[in-house]
Amino acid sequence: MKRNHCFRPLLLACVALSAWMPPLTADARELLASFAYIGCNRVGFGVTDPAPSTANVAQLQQTLADIQTLPVKPDYFFFVGDLVLGMQPDNGQTAAAELNAWKTLVDQSHFADSHIELVPLPGNHEADASQEVSPGNYVEYPDSANLSAWVAWLAANHLAKASNGPSGPKALQRDLLAEDNNQTQTYSFDDLKSGVHYVVLNTDSLSTVANPLLADKTVASWAPLHWVERDFAKASKNRKIKRIVVLAHKPLVLNNPGPHDIVYNTAPHTLGDALLKLFGDTPKFAGYFCAHAHEWLYTDKIGPKHNVTQVIAGNGGSELEGDWNPEGGPYFGFTVVNLYDDETVGVVSYTRPAPDPYNAPAPQPAAKPAPEIVFPVVGR
């Protein structure tokens, strides 16, 4: 049974799709850094065959194999949430079991032998639980025990790149955070060899803002805006940092989003709008890379200055959006992001046809690259 609490038909608003810049020659630019990323590989409710990992195993295995054989080895592989199905209010037991089984699958692929660093971050299926408020209608909320299970899993497997996220009474009060365990849920790190500052953002942080639909719960889709503002200020002043990249689970903009589908943006806490303004005011900003919607969508020219680019790569293996009809048919895959020295960013979607059923266990074909989409850094 498919629960009606995560996704609705989604199309991006304010879309200026595929703004192709003129191709540049190899002599005109050099690659500073690259990373691969993906989101949303978990299966749906009622699908029990891939238990206990709840991964779309065939798609996950092929993606791990594909990334290891890329012609240029990426610096990192970010998995931006919904690794597992989770979403249970059971003191974190389901989340912990599924995450451990997921890590076993990755270990069995020998991905570590590639020396590409795996950096997972939480999605709503890791961070949240849900409660049925009417037949078939579920309301999500950040679950303290599930988030604690995530933090413990990161620590046990050494999967957090840093632990400089919101910490201490002042930071908690500033961002209305409920618990002091956010240091590895949201954090940042510098790759000084490439001059890139990476921000890993939990878009389902546990806040103190009451959920209007659940008396004893808090709102979903919360993000620590003020921590991000302070982090950006430091990175902007650092002369060694040339680019700032943000990776998160939930998008900032969607057309007709469901109640849990974008970063919280309800007055007086318009976090999504504030983040778009911050990104557009930051010359080093090089893109917002997310998932959550089970599709692949590139959107540029968003935000107050129409200069922010968002990429959704939620086509990692979860059941795809029913109204997503790309040319050539729906596809699974992953995305590679290239950061160039001429203040441009290249995005390459690697695609393989989606099978029927979507979680078919048979081995899948290698993904093939689509043409690179190139866009400018905000300050270019």
Structural description of this entry:
The chain is α/β, with parallel strands linked by helices and 380 residues long. The protein has a single domain, classed as Purple Acid Phosphatase, chain A, domain 2 (4-Layer Sandwich). It is built from 7 helices and 19 strands. Strands 1, 2, 3, 16, 17, 18 and 19 form a 7-stranded mixed beta sheet that branches. A 6-stranded mixed beta sheet has the order 6-7-10-13-15-14. It has a two-stranded antiparallel ribbon with strand order 4-5. A hairpin with a 5-residue loop joins strand 14 and strand 15. The protein is globular, with a radius of gyration of 19 Å. The N terminus is likely disordered.
Topology of this protein?
Elements: E1 31-38, H1 57-68, E2 76-80, H2 93-108, E3 117-121, H3 124-127, E4 128-134, E5 137-142, H4 144-157, H5 169-174, E6 187-191, E7 196-201, E8 210-211, E9 214-218, H6 225-237, E10 243-248, E11 265-266, E12 269-270, H7 271-280, E13 285-290, E14 296-302, E15 308-313, E16 331-340, E17 344-353, E18 368-369, E19 373-376
Helix pairs in contact: 2-4, 6-7
| CATH top level label | Alpha Beta
Number of strand elements: 19
The succession of helices and strands, N to C, reads: EHEHEHEEHHEEEEHEEEHEEEEEEE
User: How is the biggest beta sheet arranged?
Assistant: 7 strands, mixed
Q: Runs with pLDDT <50, length 5+?
A: 1-27
Based on CA atoms alone, the radius of gyration comes out at 19 Å
Q: What is the name of the CATH architecture? A: 4-Layer Sandwich
Question: CATH superfamily name?
Answer: Metallo-dependent phosphatases
According to CATH, what is the topology?
Answer: Purple Acid Phosphatase, chain A, domain 2
